[in-house]
Amino acid sequence: MIFSEQPLLIFDGACGTNLQLLNITDQDWSGCEGCNEVLNFSAPDHIVQFHSSMLDAGAMVLETDTFGASRVVLAEYGLQDRVKEINTLAVENARRAIAGRSDKYIAGSIGPGTKLPSLGHISVTELAAATQEQIEALLEAGVDCLIVETCQDLLQTKTALVAVFDVLQSSNYELPVMASVTIEQQGTMLVGSDIAAVVATLEPFPLFSLGLNCATGPRDMMSHIKYLSENWPQRISVIPNQGLPEVVNGLTHYPLSPQDYAEQMYQFVVNQGVSIVGGCCGTSPEHIQALVDRLEGVQPKQREVQV
């Protein structure tokens, strides 16, 4: 199968590390410091400010501040009964930022949660129910697509995707669904699956795209993206950290400059046919701006996939 050229989609940058740079007070956190999702109702202007900074940099797609907005994660902060409210407000905050801008989209972010079924932390049934509840809230709020991201466990990934497509089918929704896994520096997901296992496992799902995000910077993703380029028959996404995180003076530091980051991402597009790019931990509006500038007028390489 030979892929024709696909228009690029440029996602935003890191939510958590950019929110840490804002003047968020103890009152804003409402006793839930570390739960970024609480800011959707306690300090929505901060969320809108973050989204707006990414749009100003040229991002085409905003991810909602709902990475941990499932019942399982919110229960750790006593917010388990506010799933619908938080997801709804997150979409509204993204929509506020987009107001008046054309050709901008909202991706409903669904994170892996804090309990993995393959490690016995949670049952598949409980995980599926929690994921379904979040999906229903995001769909009702009006997202343009869904991204099941930072997947660390293939059983968790499959469970989430089954829930997504069950809800879409039962609700008569047609929406692009993206999956993005996290491959650690040792070359596998947290529970040991490599990229070939990911492709084999997720191939039956009607995904809009499959890709990688988080854990490492672009350089450590190269071999995995090359495999996807040769073996995955749909779009590929690459949303890395701002380089491999380091500890400097006791603090987490991400080393790549905006220009270095953009250049490495450019190589994925022109050499591997990647058509969805963006930034994960550490990436600032400056990184997204550099990415937008470097990819101006660029088309992803045509690729041939054996299926």
If you had to describe this structure to a student in words, what would you say it looks like?
- The chain is 41% helix and 13% strand.
- It is α/β, with parallel strands linked by helices and 307 residues long.
- The chain has a single domain (9-294), classed as TIM Barrel, CATH 3.20.20.330.
- The strands form two sheets. Strands 1-10-7-6-5-4-3-2 form an eight-stranded parallel sheet. A two-stranded antiparallel ribbon has the order 8-9.
- Helix 4 (44-57) crosses helix 6 and helix 11 crosses helix 12 (285-294).
Briefly say what this structure is.
The protein is α/β, with parallel strands linked by helices and 307 residues long.
What are the SSEs and their pairings?
Elements: E1 9-10, H1 16-19, H2 26-29, H3 39-42, H4 44-57, E2 61-63, H5 71-74, H6 83-98, E3 105-110, H7 124-141, E4 145-151, H8 154-171, E5 177-181, H9 195-202, E6 209-213, H10 222-231, E7 235-239, E8 246-248, E9 251-253, H11 258-272, E10 276-277, H12 285-294
Parallel strand pairs: 1-10, 2-3, 3-4, 4-5, 5-6, 6-7, 7-10
Antiparallel strand pairs: 8-9
CATH structural fold name: TIM Barrel
Count, helices: 12
CATH secondary-structure class: Alpha Beta
Q: What's the helical proportion of residues?
A: 40-55%
Widest beta sheet: strand line-up? 1-10-7-6-5-4-3-2
Order of helices and strands: EHHHHEHHEHEHEHEHEEEHEH
Q: How far from one another are the termini?
A: 7 Å
Q: Report the sheet-strand fraction.
A: 5-15%
By secondary-structure content and strand pairing, the structural class works out as alpha/beta
Radius of gyration: 18 Å
Give start-end ranges of low-pLDDT stretches: none
Name the CATH architecture.
Alpha-Beta Barrel
Q: What is the quaternary state of this protein?
A: single chain
Name the overall outline: globular
